[in-house]
Write a structure and sequence with these properties.
Number of helices: 6
Strand content: under 5%
Radius of gyration: 19 Å
Order of helices and strands: HHHHHH
CATH architecture: Up-down Bundle
Oligomer: single chain
Structural class: mainly alpha
Length: 141
């Protein structure tokens, strides 16, 4: 019937839209400048965490922006691979996902007016992530 054909056409359109978003995200995440931007964000985050005394509003805001960019990076990679299992098995290292989860937790804790006592752990995770990405990055090597 006409309704069934319309439903099939709608499903096909949705599949094409999802595929085009995934292709666009793959183009962005596979570009060498994306890795450079990720490394720059991680470096800024390490510097901000090293200097952050929670008294300087500029550093505090930079810290939140870098964490927001971690979440944006994770979202772009997730959109490119379409599922979390594919992302972890083919694209993103599980350690990176762990760092993003901690960044999300920190960001949400800030939004809920909680003050985290785990700055040292977050700084260590971010520094280790920076070292791992630099060591494995095709842009750097």
């Amino acid at each position: 019937t006409t309704d069934e054909y319309a439903q099939i056409a709608r499903i096909e359109r949705n599949k094409r839209k999802q595929a085009s978003v995934a292709v666009a995200a793959q183009k962005v995440t596979s570009h060498p400048l994306f890795e450079v931007a990720v490394l720059a964000n991680i470096f800024v985050h390490i510097v901000v965490l090293a200097l952050n005394d929670f008294g300087d509003d500029v550093l505090w805001n930079l810290d939140l922006w870098t964490r927001g960019l971690f979440i944006a990076e994770f979202t772009m990679r997730l959109m490119a691979s379409r599922t979390l299992s594919k992302l972890l098995s083919h694209g993103l290292h599980s350690f990176d996902a762990l760092c993003v989860l901690f960044s999300c937790a920190y960001l949400f804790a800030y939004l809920l007016d909680a003050t985290p006592d785990s700055q040292t752990m977050l700084r260590s995770l971010t520094a280790l992530r920076f070292v791992r990405i630099v060591a494995l990055s095709p842009v750097i090597t």
